[in-house]
Every structure is written in structure tokens, then in C-alpha cells.
Amino acid sequence: MLEAQAFPSATQQFVSREAICAVFGETYDPVSWQDWRWQMRHRLHRLDQFEKLLSLTPAERVGLTMASQRFAVAVTPHFAALMDSEDPNCPIRKQVIPREEELVAAPGDLVDPCGEDQHMVVEGLVHRYPDRVLLLAQDACAAYCRYCTRSRLVAQGDLNALPKRLEAILDYLRAHPEVRDVLISGGDPLLFSDDRLDALLSAVRSVPSVEFVRLGSRVPGFLPQRITSELAAVLRRHRVWLSLHFSHPRELTPEVAAACDTLADAGVPLGSQTVLLAGVNDDANTLRELFTGLLKLRVRPYYLYQCDPVLGTSHLRTSIAKGLEIMGQLRGFTTGYAVPTYVVDAPGGGGKIPLQPPSVVAHEGETWVLRNWSGRLFTYQDPPQA
Ligand SMILES: *Cc1c(COP(=O)(O)O)cnc(C)c1O
Prior knowledge:
Shape: globular
Binding site for [4Fe-4S] cluster: 141, 145, 148
CATH topology of the largest domain: TIM Barrel
Oligomer: single chain
Bound molecules: pyridoxal-5'-phosphate
GO molecular function, one term: metal ion binding
Domain Radical SAM core: 127-338
Mean pLDDT: 95
Keywords: 4Fe-4S, Iron, Iron-sulfur, Isomerase, Metal-binding, Pyridoxal phosphate, S-adenosyl-L-methionine
CATH class of the largest domain: Alpha Beta
InterPro entries: Aldolase_TIM, LAM_C_dom, Lys_aminomutase/Glu_NH3_mut, rSAM, rSAM_sf
């Protein structure tokens, strides 16, 4: 078992498990706490619940009364216990407690920032790239990220349940053998029961042209209790890759470490995606700690996303210049395994565009002048042209 990453300093006041249980008139019971269905039934949604746990700011109060009507609020007890009750800048609070700023529509904000709806070929299936599709599993997540790129769909009750949609999705896959890669993502597929997930994966795997199946999930971080050896066995049987989602090193708790161990020991390849968020993780030290912490859990950082311009998220976004500066402080300073690809998912539906600080300083004929990680210049000579 790995030690917790962030030991509370004297100034940090973490919400206690006892206080969370008391919100529901219960006493803390370690066995119930480890049960994922108990965690789901005891999610925090409302102002009066958070009020008992946190010294809320006026902006959070407005967020919990107004913004929560536009996009649902839910926080698992596991995740709530990582919040600092006294620090309004707590990186955990910022991700899941709405603020008044969510009501602000900034120039360029979009309801469907990645233009997914225009590439939706059947309900809940987005086909943008030549060989792969995105399958939206359902409309619920364990907790709701305030910067969700799919807040127009998730928790809105518009997406039909998967059994109703699945035949059309399978028909599409059978009619498009060029699709060899299916990414099943949010709403979160790991909230399905083991049997439902097994049936879904069997159905997708039954299409002969599908070679590669991935799940995108924040459940290992929001609800690590869900990762049982039975679930890991289902994922292993269908040879699924798993993309996790983490924002801050404080999320790498002993429970999360145990969940990642269960998955890695079962042979499930693990990647992680992170969204660059203002005041949460927009500095090189925090991200380096997160990415190297993930490597210790056998999770490979895959993408660092520039935050999509979702309506009402400008307070959580940072500039591309800042993202590039941070990338320049990661590459070379730590192993390439701990350096994800920084991407902008192009507004309007252009897909992911990778960005990195320029390393080609000059190029003439067969001579390339390149900048290394520490800023020094080197020349590379191409082979002579025949
Ligand atoms: C991100 C994404 C994928 C998967 O892209 P990879 O670069 O293979 O991870 C597929 N379809 C859509 C619509 C996506 O947004």
C-alpha cells in the first residue's frame, strides 16, 4: 500500500468522514464507507449539506443555488473528504462546487465546445476521426466536474438509456468496418453494474472490425470503492484499456492507489487525462507531482487538455501561453513517461491539436537548429540528399 500523497499541513482542515456521515444523520462506519453503492447513495448535492462541511464563500453559495439548476451538482463522500473546509482556493472544491462565475458567459464560450453534436452519427455515437468513435455510455457520473465538456448532455436527462440506443450503434459499427477503435466514455461507464458492463463490452466486441476498446472514467478517482476484483476481471476479459481522469496530486489517496493496483494487477493498461485548470493545477510543480505520482501507481499520463471553452467555465481556464510554459518545465526535467501530450480540442469540431514549446529554432537545407529541454541549442544534420 502506498502512503497518501499529500499529508495535511497544520493549516489544512480536511472535511472528516464523521462530519460527512453526520450530514445524513449517520455515524461513520468503515465498512459502509468502502461500499460503492453506499457512496453513491450518500452523495452531496445541496447547499444545506455543504454548509455543514465547509465555510462557504458567497460565490459558492450563489453557485449552489443558481448554477446548480443549470448543471447538476454531486460529490461522493470519498471526494468530499479531500476538501479543505477553510480554504476557498482548495483545488478539490474548485472542481466540484459551483461558483457564481458559472453564470458568466465569456466571449467564445460554447455549449458544445468540441462540436460533438455535428459529428453524432447516431444518438450517443460521435464519429470524427477516420478509424475511431466515441460512444457515450450514459448520462450520469459519480460526481460532476464543473468544467465538464459535456455538461449539455450529462445529467440533463436527454440521452436515452443505452439499451434503447445500442442496436443502432452496433448497426453503425457493422456498416463502418473502418472503425477499429471504440472509446466508451462519459457519462461514466464504470457506474454500470458488472453484468451490464460485461454485456456492453461483449456487444461492442461482437463487431468483427473492432480491434481496440477503451473506457474513459473518473470513477477510480471519484469512487475508488467501485474498483473491485470482479470489475477488473470483466475489463481484463474484454481486453479493455482504461483512461482515468485526475486533476491534482491530492486525489492520489491510498484508496485510489489500491484501485489502480487492482486494475494494473489484473492486466488492465491504465492512462490518465488531466484538464489544465486555473488555480487547481496550472503550475509545473503541481503537475509534476501529479504525473510522477501517477507513474508510481502504474498509470501513464496520456493527455493534458487545454480546458474547453464550455459556457460558464472562463474562471477555470488558463491561457495557452501558460500551458506551453508549463510543458517547457516538464519535458526533460522528468521522464517522458510523466509528460503527457498537451492538446487543444479545437472549438468547432476540429479534434485534438497537440501543442509543445517550439524546439525547431531554424531549418535550412539539411541543417536543423534545435533547442533542448534546458534551452541550449544543438545542430542536427540530415543525411545528404541523393
Ligand atoms: C478524443 C476523442 C477520440 C479519441 O482520440 P485519441 O487521440 O485516440 O485518444 C475519439 N473520438 C472523439 C470524438 C474524441 O474527442
